TrEMBL record, chain A:
GO terms for cellular component: axoneme; BBSome; centrosome. GO terms for biological process: non-motile cilium assembly; protein localization to cilium. Pfam families: BBS1, GAE_BBS1. Residues 481-579 form the Bardet-Biedl syndrome 1 protein GAE domain. One of its GO terms (molecular function) is patched binding. It comes from Cephus cinctus. This is Bardet-Biedl syndrome 1 protein homolog. Residues 19-275 form the Bardet-Biedl syndrome 1 N-terminal domain.
Automatic annotation (TrEMBL), chain B:
GO terms for cellular component: ciliary basal body. Pfam families: TPR_16 (PF13432), TPR_8 (PF13181). The keyword Kinase does not apply. It comes from Cephus cinctus. TPR repeats lie at residues 138-171, 205-238, 341-374. SMART domains: TPR. Keywords: Repeat, TPR repeat. Belongs to the BBS4 family. It comes from the Eukaryota. Gene3D superfamilies: Tetratricopeptide repeat domain. This is Bardet-Biedl syndrome 4 protein homolog.
Length: 584, 444
C-alpha cells in the first residue's frame, strides 16, 4: 500500500538530479512555519502520514492540524490557538501502535492518538504577584463588589509594578470600557487569580532506548523560560529545566535516562545546552537571532541565523565552522542519507531553493519556483526518503531521494559564486582612441594651448556672470519650487494641468504667481495667484488653452514673484495640433 | 475550559493544582497569556517577513492594550531596520514601560539614541543597562566604549573596551580597541589585541585582514602577507584582504598573479576606484598602455577626487607621449593632493614637453618647496632652470643634489644626468666668461 503516487516522469532533466519528483500540489494552501511539519505512522499500520500544523489565515480561517496521505488531505482538526509545533512520538518501546501526536498551542499541549483527541496537558499556572492576588482575593470576599475601588487599586499596582508582572486578567480588566468592568469582575472575582503560561516550542527526547520506535519524553519550551520534560505515558512533568529566557527551538541528543542533552536557542540568539540535573551552560550568542536549529552529523548542532549565516557547533558548544548562505534562510533540517551514512543539512534559502550541505561543503541544490517556507524529511507512506517542502504560497512539494544518489561528488559551483559570469572587461583600442593619440603626439602643445585658452574663457564667462548677478542684486539660490505641467484633452480645447510643489522643508515665499504665455493660443486664465505652498504637497492648478490656428504652440509657464522682473522658474509644454472636428 | 472536549475524560490524571483550577474555572473562559503568540511574531521576524510580522504585532498590541513587551520590542527592531530610528526609540520606550527590569529594552533604547546621534543620552542609557545587568555583558561595555570614543575620551573608552575584550571572542570590541591604540600610536598594543583576538577566533577574516593592514603600515610586508593569506583561506572572495595582498604582489612585479587576484575582487567590488587603479598600474607594469589607460580612466571616473588614479594617468600619458592629456590629469591630481610633491613634479615635466617653460618652472618650484631633498625633484628643477636660462639657480640646485647624494643613494641615472648637466653648465659658464672676456676685449 503505497501512499505516494510516484511520478517518475514528472519534470524533465531529472537525469542528473538526485531527486525524484513525487508530489506537487500547488493549491494545497498550507500556511506553515518551521517546526510545523511532521511525518508519523499514526495508526501503526506502516503507512506514514504527513501532518501539518496550519496556522490559518487570520480571521477567515482558523488554525488547524491537517493530515495528508500522499498529496490528499484526509482529515483536519481545528485549533483555537495557532499551533507552535507538532511532534510525533511513541509511548512504548518497540510498539509502533503506541504512536502519539503532540501539538503545542496556546498554554496547552494537545495529544492525539490515531488522530483522535487523547489528552490535553495544560501548562501549570505561574504565580501572580502577591499584591495583585491579595487585591483580587479581597474583591472575591466582598458581598457587594466595588468596581471603582478595585479599578483604582489595580491601576496603582500596574503603575507600581509595570505591565510585565501583572496577570492578563487585570490587564484585560483595566483595558475594558468602564461599563463592562463590573460584569467582568463579577465573573472572575471568586476564582483564584492565575497567570497563564504559553508554549513556545515543542520537541522530544528519547527516553531509554536507541531502537526504533522508542518511547520518548516530550519537551515543552515555555514563555516563562523553562523546559518541561513530560513523561510519555502519564503526561506528568518529570523534570523542569530553567533557562531564564523563552526558547525558540529545542534539539535533543542522547537518551534522557542517560547523558541526554537538550540544546536550546533563545530569541536574541543565545545558545546553550542543558541536561538532567545541571544548570544551563551557555555556549555562545549568535550574531543574529536564529531561524532554525537542527542536528548535525550525530551529536552536533547546526543553526541558521537571520543574517544568512549557517553555523556548526560541536556537542561541547565549540563553533566548528561558519558559512554565509546566498540569501535569507527560511528553514533548516538535517537529512540523513542512509545508504552512505552521511548526514546532510538542507537549508531553504529565499531565491535559491533548497541547498544541501555536507558540513560546510555545498553538495546539491534543489531549485524551486517559489521560496520554501518549511521542510521535513522522513517517512511518507512507504517511502523512507521523502522530503516534503511547503512553499511560501502554500503549495506542497514532495521529493524522494534516489537510492543511487551519491553525495561524495561535491557540487562544482559554490552557490555564493553564481555571479561568476560577471566579466572582467578591459576595453580594446578603438580607432578614435588611436587617432586622438596620434594627433596628440604630433600637436600636443597646440592642443594644450587651445584647452587652456578655452578653459580660461569659461572661467572668465562664469566670473562675469557671477559679477553681473551680484551687481544686480538678484537672488541666485536654488529654487525650491518645482513645476510639472501636462496637457490633457483631444483638442481644440486643452486643459493644462500644472502641479506646483514646494520641495523645501519650510513654507514657500509669499506673493508667487504663475503666468502662462503662448502667442498662438488663448489661455484662460493667464495669470494665477498661488497660495502659500506647504512643504511637500503638490498643488494642482488647471488652465484652459485653445490654439488659434493650426500651428502647434509652445506654452511657457512661468513662476514669478511680485516685484521681480525675472521669473523664478520656467517650464514649457507643447500643445499638439488639434484634429479636425470629427463628425459624430 | 475552552477546549475541554479534547481532554477526553482523562482529566483526573492531571496534577492536583490543575484539577483545582479547572474545576473552578469550568464556567468562565480562561484568559490567555499576553505572551501567547510571541513565538509566532519571532518566527516571522527571523524570516524577514516584516509585513506579516507588523500586522501580527498590531493585532497583539490591540489585544493586550499595548502591554505586550515583546511585540513592542520587535516593532522597534523592525522600525529600526526600516530606518525609522525615532519611531523605534518610541517602541523600545513602550517596551521599557511594560518591563523596566529587562536589560534588552534599555540596551535597545541606548542603541537607538546612539544611532540618532545623541551619544550623551546613549551613554547614560548604556551605563544604566550596565547597572541593571545581572551578569557583565560585553555588548554593553563595548557600546560604552564606542560612546566614549565619540566624545574623544580615549582612556575611558579603552578601559571599557578592555573589559569587553576580556569577556568575549567577538571581533567588534577587539577591532575597536585596536583602532583606539593605533590612534594613540600604540602599535604594539594594537598588534597584541589583534593577535589575542585571532587566538580566540582563528577563523575571523576581518581581524586577520585588519592585522595584515596594520603590519603593512608598519612596513612588515612578510607578516602582512601571511595574515592576508590566512584571511583568504577562510573566505577566498574577501576583497578587503585580496586588494592589499595583490598590491604586495604588484610591488614585487608579480603582475599576472596580482591581476588574477584583482579579477576575483572585481566580482564583489566592481565599483572600487582603488581596485581599478591597481589593475591599471598592473597593465602599466606589463607595458600594456591602452589597457592601463582604460582601467585608470575607470578608476578616475569612479572617484574623480582621488589622487592616485589621476596621478597614475598622468604618468601613463607621459610614457605614451601624450603630454596634453597628462597635464590635464595631473592638474586634477594636484588639486586632489596639494601637499604631495610628485604630481607637481610630473606636471612640471608635462608642461616642459608642452613648451610652457614658465608654468613648468612654477610647478617645479612648488614641488621643490614641498620636497627640497628629493633627488628627482632637484635634478628636474635644475634642468628646467637651465632651460629657462637661470644657470645660477640651476647650479645651486645641482649643488644641493650633490649634498643629498652624499647622504642617500641616488639613482645612477639621476647621478649621470646631474654629471652631464654640471659639465654643460661649466662649459656655458666658461663660454660666458669668454664672452665677457671678448666684450672686454672689444672694449679694450
Amino acid at each position: 500500500m503505497n501512499g505516494l503516487g510516484i511520478d517518475r516522469h514528472g519534470v524533465g532533466g531529472l537525469g542528473t538530479s538526485r531527486w525524484l519528483e513525487a508530489i506537487w500540489e500547488p493549491g494545497a494552501r498550507i500556511y506553515c512555519l518551521p517546526g510545523g511539519l511532521e511525518m508519523l505512522d499514526i495508526s501503526g499500520d506502516g503507512d506514514a502520514r504527513f501532518i501539518v500544523a496550519d496556522l490559518g489565515t487570520g480571521a477567515a480561517e482558523s488554525a488547524k492540524i491537517r493530515v495528508f496521505k500522499g498529496g490528499d488531505q484526509i482529515t483536519e482538526h481545528s485549533m483555537i490557538d495557532p499551533p507552535c509545533g507538532v511532534v510525533g512520538f511513541y509511548s512504548e518501546n518497540g510498539e509502533p501502535q503506541s504512536a502519539l501526536l503532540a501539538v503545542g498551542a496556546g498554554s496547552s499541549v494537545y495529544i492525539y492518538k490515531n488522530m483522535r483527541p487523547h489528552f490535553k496537558y495544560c501548562l501549570p499556572y505561574m504565580d501572580a504577584h502577591p499584591k495583585e492576588r491579595e487585591i483580587w482575593h479581597r474583591a472575591g470576599l466582598e458581598e457587594e463588589l466595588n468596581v471603582l475601588s478595585l479599578s483604582d487599586e489595580l491601576e496603582l499596582l500596574l503603575k507600581e509594578l509595570g505591565a510585565a508582572t501583572i496577570s492578563p486578567r487585570t490587564l484585560k480588566f483595566l483595558g475594558m470600557d468602564v461599563s463592562l468592568r463590573f460584569s467582568f469582575a463579577e465573573q472572575y472575582r471568586r476564582i483564584p487569580l492565575s497567570k497563564a503560561n504559553a508554549v513556545t516550542t515543542i520537541d522530544t527526547i528519547r527516553k531509554d532506548s536507541w531502537n526504533d520506535p522508542a518511547s520518548s519524553c516530550l519537551l515543552i519550551g515555555t514563555e516563562s523560560g523553562e523546559i518541561l520534560v513530560l513523561d510519555s505515558r502519564a503526561f506528568s512533568v518529570v523534570d523542569k529545566l530553567p533557562l531564564g529566557w523563552p526558547p525558540v527551538s529545542l534539539l535533543s541528543t542522547g537518551l534522557w535516562a542517560g547523558d541526554g542533552h537538550i540544546i536550546a536557542i533563545g530569541r536574541d540568539g543565545k545558545l546553550g545546552s542543558v541536561r538532567k540535573g545541571c544548570a544551563l551552560r551557555l555556549w555562545d550568542k549568535l550574531s543574529a537571532p536564529a531561524v532554525a536549529l537542527t542536528t548535525l552529523a550525530g551529536d552536533n548542532a547546526a543553526v541558521a541565523a537571520m543574517d544568512g549565516t549557517l553555523v556548526g557547533f560541536s556537542k561541547k558548544g565549540i563553533k566548528l565552522w561558519q558559512l554565509q548562505l546566498p540569501g535569507i534562510a527560511l528553514d533548516l533540517i538535517s537529512l540523513p542519507v542512509l545508504q552512505s551514512g552521511l548526514s546532510l543539512l538542507a537549508v531553504s534559502v529565499a531565491g535559491s531553493g533548497v541547498l544541501l550541505y555536507d558540513g560546510k561543503f555545498h553538495v546539491d541544490s534543489i531549485k524551486t519556483a517559489e521560496p520554501i517556507s518549511a521542510i521535513k524529511h522522513g517517512r511518507m507512506g512507504q517511502e523512507e526518503r521523502a522530503m516534503a517542502m511547503v512553499t511560501i504560497g502554500g503549495g506542497l512539494n514532495v521529493k524522494i531521494l534516489k537510492r543511487t544518489a551519491d553525495f561524495s561528488v561535491k557540487a562544482s559551483t559554490n552557490p555564493t559564486m553564481n555571479s561568476n559570469n560577471n566579466r572582467f572587461t578591459i576595453p580594446k583600442k578603438t580607432r578614435l582612441f588611436v587617432e586622438q593619440t596620434i594627433r596628440e603626439r604630433s600637436e600636443a602643445a597646440k592642443i594644450h594651448n587651445a584647452f587652456q585658452s578655452a578653459f580660461l574663457r569659461l572661467r572668465l564667462t562664469v566670473a562675469r556672470k557671477a559679477v553681473e548677478i551680484l551687481a544686480t542684486n538678484q537672488e541666485f539660490r536654488p529654487n525650491p519650487i518645482t513645476l510639472e505641467a501636462s496637457v490633457l484633452g483631444l483638442g481644440p480645447n486643452y486643459l493644462i494641468k500644472i502641479l506646483v510643489t514646494n520641495i523645501s522643508d519650510g513654507l514657500s515665499d509669499t506673493e508667487l504667481f504663475l503666468v502662462c504665455r503662448d502667442e498662438n493660443a488663448d489661455i484662460k486664465p493667464r495669470v494665477i495667484d498661488l497660495p502659500l505652498l506647504p512643504s511637500g504637497i503638490p498643488i494642482p492648478v488647471s488652465v484652459n488653452a485653445t490654439p488659434r490656428g493650426k500651428i502647434p504652440g509652445k506654452v511657457h509657464i512661468m513662476l514669478c514673484k511680485m516685484g521681480k522682473v525675472k521669473p523664478i522658474a520656467l517650464t514649457t509644454v507643447v500643445l499638439p495640433v488639434p484634429e479636425d472636428d470629427i463628425e459624430v | 475550559m475552552a477546549n475541554n472536549v479534547l481532554s477526553n475524560g482523562r482529566i483526573q490524571h492531571a496534577t492536583a493544582a490543575q484539577r483545582l483550577s479547572t474545576d473552578k474555572a469550568k464556567k468562565v473562559p480562561d484568559i490567555p497569556a499576553i505572551e501567547s503568540r510571541n513565538w509566532l511574531l519571532h518566527r516571522h521576524y527571523t524570516r524577514h517577513e516584516y509585513k506579516i510580522c507588523k500586522i501580527l504585532i498590531q493585532e497583539e498590541l490591540t489585544r493586550s492594550n499595548g502591554h505586550n513587551e515583546y511585540a513592542n520590542y520587535l516593532q522597534g527592531l523592525i522600525m529600526r531596520k526600516e530606518g525609522k530610528i525615532q519611531d523605534s526609540l518610541d517602541c523600545f520606550q513602550n517596551a521599557y514601560n511594560v518591563n523596566s527590569r529587562n536589560v534588552n529594552n534599555v540596551k535597545q533604547i541606548a542603541k537607538s539614541l546612539y544611532l540618532l546621534g545623541s551619544h550623551n543620552r546613549a551613554l547614560e542609557a548604556y551605563l544604566e543597562a550596565e547597572r541593571i545587568s545581572a551578569i557583565p555583558d560585553w555588548e554593553i561595555l563595548y557600546n560604552i566604549g564606542e560612546c566614549y570614543t565619540r566624545f574623544d575620551k580615549r582612556e575611558e573608552a579603552k578601559k571599557y573596551l578592555k573589559k569587553a575584550v576580556d569577556l568575549t571572542k567577538d571581533e567588534m570590541p577587539h577591532i575597536a580597541l585596536a583602532k583606539l591604540y593605533i590612534m594613540d600610536d600604540q602599535v604594539t598594543e594594537a598588534v597584541g589585541v589583534y593577535t589575542s583576538a585571532l587566538d580566540g577566533s582563528p577563523q575571523s577574516e576581518n581581524i586577520a585582514t585588519e592585522l595584515g593592514l596594520l603590519y603593512l603600515k608598519m612596513g612588515d610586508t612578510q607578516r602582512a602577507f601571511q595574515q592576508f593569506g590566512s584571511a583568504l583561506a577562510q573566505s577566498p572572495t574577501c576583497s578587503k584582504a585580496l586588494l592589499p595582498m595583490a598590491s604586495i604582489m604588484q610591488t614585487h612585479r608579480d603582475y599576472d598573479v596580482a591581476l588574477s587576484k584583482y579579477k576575483i575582487a572585481a566580482q564583489t567590488i566592481p565599483e572600487s576606484s582603488a581596485l581599478w587603479n591597481n589593475v591599471g598600474m598592473c597593465f602599466y607594469g606589463k607595458q600594456k598602455f591602452v589597457a592601463a589607460i582604460s582601467c585608470l580612466k575607470r578608476a578616475h571616473y569612479l572617484n574623480p577626487m582621488a589622487l592616485y588614479p589621476a596621478c597614475n594617468l598622468g604618468i601613463v600619458f607621459l610614457t605614451t607621449g601624450q603630454p596634453a592629456s597628462a597635464a590635464t590629469y595631473l592638474c586634477a591630481a594636484v588639486s586632489a593632493g596639494p601637499m604631495h610633491p610628485s604630481p607637481y613634479l610630473l606636471l612640471g615635466l608635462a608642461l616642459r614637453q608642452l613648451d610652457d617653460l614658465e608654468a613648468a618652472e612654477k610647478a617645479l618650484t612648488k614641488a621643490h618647496s614641498l620636497a627640497p631633498q628629493d633627488p628627482l625633484v632637484l635634478i628636474n628643477y635644475a634642468i628646467i632652470l637651465d632651460a629657462k636660462g637661470d644657470q645660477k639657480r640651476a647650479a645651486d640646485t645641482l649643488t644641493a643634489l650633490t649634498d643629498v647624494s652624499a647622504v642617500i643613494n641616488v639613482d645612477p641615472e639621476v647621478a649621470e644626468t646631474a654629471r652631464k648637466l654640471t659639465a654643460k653648465l661649466r662649459r656655458s659658464d666658461n663660454s660666458k666668461d669668454e664672452n665677457e672676456r671678448i666684450l672686454n676685449d672689444d672694449e679694450v
